[in-house]
Specification:
235 residues; 3 domains; two-stranded antiparallel ribbon; 11 helices
Length: 235
């Protein structure tokens, strides 16, 4: 695992170096020492913000992670078989499922949404004579993919995942380079939670566990008093 260090300034991005952490764990103490040494090199007076990549831990709930894994399995199975990929495009009117974006989180969300939009066409595909008469319908993984696509429970989980992850796209603010996010992220997180609550029609038991996860993540790693100050001082 390579930890890359990037410094953003008014003149652009600078790459001071990287660290090979393949043979050791990256716990909080080691990461702190890395930050501290980097800040000393740059000069503490020159540092106004530190941004770390923790996208893989943004979604902690096991069931939601399973939704993404199942969706990835469906996409991987189709995309790795040219004949099946062409067959899928026939049913989706030449629409693909992958929606690339600047961040992995957004790409995953957009791909899941594209898959949901095409759910009826995907169902029609696996129920068609073209599918049932093909070798794909006889493969173990092909049967698993078909069962997922026709499963109402799977698509219910997809809707739930989209309801939660859609508003959390505000986290892309910290990846932007057009403006510093310090004075916007506090309000953005509040609005994201309000949108999630509305998505579940205000039924608290459907989202209270999710809010516990979001709040724990926000309080332990993302929130700093400077966020609140930036929120208050933002004109």
């Amino acid at each position: 695992m390579i930890i890359k260090i990037l410094v953003n300034s008014l003149i652009g991005n600078v790459f001071p170096g990287s660290i090979d952490a393949s043979n050791e764990s990256t716990n909080s103490t080691k990461m702190y020492k890395l930050f501290e040494s980097t800040i000393e090199i740059i000069g503490p007076e020159n540092v106004v913000q530190i941004v770390t990549n923790n996208a893989s831990e943004n979604v902690k709930e096991g069931s939601m992670m399973m939704v993404f894994k199942k969706a990835i399995r469906i996409h991987f199975y189709i995309s790795q078989r040219p004949l099946l990929l062409n067959l899928m495009r026939k049913f989706t009117k030449e629409r693909n499922l992958v929606k690339p974006s600047k961040t992995r989180f957004a790409t995953t969300f957009l791909t899941l949404r594209a898959m949901y939009i095409q759910r009826k066409n995907l169902r029609t595909l696996v129920l068609s004579t073209e599918w049932t008469s093909s070798k794909f319908a006889k493969e173990t993984l092909g049967k698993e993919v078909a069962n997922l696509i026709i499963s109402a429970h799977f698509w219910d989980d997809v809707v739930r995942a989209l309801t939660v992850c859609g508003p959390l796209k505000v986290l892309r603010l910290v990846d932007g380079e057009k403006k510093p996010p310090m004075s916007y992220i506090y309000e953005a997180m509040d609005r994201a939670k309000e949108t999630i609550a509305r998505g579940f029609r205000g039924v608290k038991k459907k989202y209270e566990k999710l809010f516990e996860i979001i709040d724990a993540r926000w309080s332990d790693q993302l929130y700093q008093p400077l966020h609140a100050a930036g929120h208050v001082l933002n004109p």
